[in-house]
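Attaching the record inline, Q. Sequence:
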Amino acid sequence: MPANKTYVLGLTGGISCGKSAAAQYLVSLGAAHIDADAISRALTAPGGAALPEIRELFGNGVFRPDGTLNRTALGQIVFADAARRAALEGIIHPRVRAEILARIGASDAPVTVLDAPLLFEAGLDALCDTVWSMSLGAREQIERVCLRDGLTAEQAQARIDSQLPMAVRNARADQVIDSGRPIEETRATLLQLYRALPVNNKEAGR
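Structure, as predicted:
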C-alpha cells in the first residue's frame, strides 16, 4: 500500500463508461477528487506548460492562428498513429503525475479519488491503495461515444482502441462496476464498496 496520509482510490474506465459520474457521486460521499484529465487539459490550455513541446513535436498545424491548441487536429493525428500518441503521452504524463503526487500529498480527506482514464497506461495505479474500473458493453460504449462527441462509429472505435482493452483494464482492477445498469443501481454498488473501504470501516483490522 502506498504510504499516503489519504487513502487513494484509483477510478478508471474506458471513454464514456460513466467514470466522471461515478467520481462525482463519490465526492458527494465525502471523498476528495483529483481529475487527471483536468490536469492534462490545463497543461494544454493557453499558456500551458506542455504547449512548447507539442508545437516542436507536431508543428504549427495543430495550433489555431491565435496560438491555442487545436485539439481536434491533434486528436486526428494521435488516435490514428500509436507512435505519435506515445510521443504526446511522453510530454503529458510526467507533468500530470507530478501534479497528482503534489495533490495527494496535500489532501487531508480520508479518501481521495484519483480519476484517470489512463490510470494503468500511465502507471498511476502505483499511487493507489485500490483501483475500481467502470465497465460497459462494447456496443453501448460506441453508442455513448458517438452521442457525446458527435463521432461516427469508426471514429468512436478508433478512440476506444487507443485505450487499454476493457477486459485487460477490468482484470487489473480490484473492483469492476457495471455502468450499463440504471444509475440508481450503479450508485448503490458504489456506496456499498465505498463504505467497505478499510479507512471507512471502523471494524477493519480488529
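The longest helix spans residues 82-106. Residues 14 and 129 are 20 Å apart (CA to CA).

More tomorrow.
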